[in-house]
Specification:
Layout lengths: L3 E4 L13 H13 L3 H4 L5 E6 L4 H7 L9 E4 L16 E6 H7 L3 H20 L3 H6 L4
Parallel strand pairs: 2-4
Antiparallel strand pairs: 1-3, 3-4
Length: 140
């Protein structure tokens, strides 16, 4: 089974954002472009997928509910778990969940900031970047 690692911010306030899929995809691209090169370089072989919300299976696997969903999810084997003798069976993926992110944001700038933070936290799971380094980069 592929381990699932969420980014989750509990009890966020209700925001007012509501973008269509194209607008949200553009916000994701802009947010990813702002990520520092040392982290963004590792996104090359990672599929980034936007979904409206996490699936029931994802929530069940994480022990979470639809009332308190994750903002993003890394799915795959971290660099620490990999071996040249047993390569991953599936490509790594980062899921970005549009509705939970929109619910916590009131402006497009705030939304892009949260998307950036979410993607960085998810790729940090893949790389094994400690929270201290994320704090140095301004992401914790």
């Amino acid at each position: 089974m592929i381990p699932l690692r969420p980014i989750h911010i509990p009890e966020y306030p209700t925001g007012k954002m509501k973008l269509n899929q194209k607008e949200f995809d553009r916000a994701v691209r802009r947010a990813i472009d702002r990520i520092p090169d040392e982290i963004r370089a590792h996104l090359e072989n990672v599929n980034i997928t936007v979904r409206k919300r996490p699936s029931r299976e994802m929530l069940d696997e994480l022990g979470m509910t639809a009332d308190d969903p994750p903002l993003g999810l890394y799915q795959g084997a971290s660099m620490m778990e990999r071996s040249v003798f047993a390569p991953p069976l599936y490509p790594d993926a980062i899921f970005i969940f549009q509705e939970p992110l929109e619910q916590m944001c009131e402006t497009l700038e705030e939304l892009e900031d949260e998307i950036e933070i979410t993607v960085v936290h998810e790729i940090a799971h893949f790389l094994g970047i400690p929270e201290e380094r994320l704090m140095e980069l301004g992401y914790a």
